[in-house]
UniProtKB/TrEMBL annotation:
It catalyses: RNA(n) + UTP = RNA(n)-3'-uridine ribonucleotide + diphosphate. Residues 1-19 have a biased composition (Basic and acidic residues). This is RNA uridylyltransferase. Gene3D superfamilies: 1.10.1410.10, Beta Polymerase, domain 2. Its cofactor is Mg(2+); Mn(2+). It is found in: Cytoplasm. GO terms for cellular component: cytoplasm. The keyword 4Fe-4S does not apply. Residues 54-183 form the Poly(A) RNA polymerase mitochondrial-like central palm domain. Belongs to the DNA polymerase type-B-like family. The keyword DNA-binding does not apply.
Amino acid sequence: MAANQERSDGGGGGDERISEQLVSQSNQVPQLSGRMRRWQVESRPEIDTFTPGLLALYESLKPSEEHKSKQNQLVDSLTKSVSKEWPDAQLHLYGSCANSFGTSHSDVDVCLEMETGTESTAEALLKLADVLRSDNFDNVEAITSARVPIVRMSDPASGFSCDICINNLFAVANTKLLKDYAQIDQRLLQLAFLVKHWAKLRGVNETYRGTLSSYAYVLMCINFLQLREPKILPCLQAMEQTFTMNVDGTECAYFDEVHHLQDFGADNKESIAELLWAFFHYWAFDHDYRRDVISVRMGNTISKQEKNWTTRVGNDRHLMCIEDPFETGHDLGRVVDRQTLRILREEFERAAGVLQYNDDPCVTLFEPYD
């Protein structure tokens, strides 16, 4: 997509573009130029009338049973192939395909947990690529120079593309954490699916272009629901540790008996329409980008100073800070630069404005950026 490139070349014209779109699309009150009026902190009175449309869209985005069946078919095929060479290896699905936040368009991410012996990860991946080619998987390619080295392939039987890594167990722990959060309150899944869909259509979910990953958006949604009053989600890492997984000397631990937490957010009656508007409004106007880091681990925001994320270090810019729950030195927003931060904030403003003023926000909100 060229969307971000076009926007990043636009100099200071972004606010005018957003303002023009809001005036033309939203039939809103006049003189909303530039940034929206910051004193507007409550959603429109009739916002709940848009909940049915948003929930219908959410239902349409959820993966089908056929999708899940084909995913299981691929896992079975991979298990058979891998066990020939590494009989003790364990195969873990991770990421969107396994954390409950994947759509029918999500590909499959697999982590092989195994002893590599004297082999390097790169050597093991090259051997894995040979094994998969011999078992008639298509388009097999070992990408050993990536931050997380992988074998990329496609499965002719299921039609899925698949990325396979070795011993990337932080990703496995993160996947379980997100899956457990998803079981506490259905509004998390609803919010995250809609935000991810919005980000994809608006061209702001591409880390290689300096915006945010799907994983980052899910963490933003979790933290946002931890911050609501009354709270909708707890902070699982601040509770009794019932699950522990040691990854490279780091203890990934939290309370995973989430069946005890089904009524945690019952005192908060906000609908998905209210929450979606409040999410965009928070990121447009309320989040302190200069000072704050969002932390699912703490269930709150913490200061950049506390993280020592006040200045750029190498390629990590720390302009929009999202702490990974277990790899706490990892800032999911590190790729965001000044141009793409402006773009993101313009898009958050646009989304909040559309939900606040548009006659048919369920359509306008998700209009593809072009």
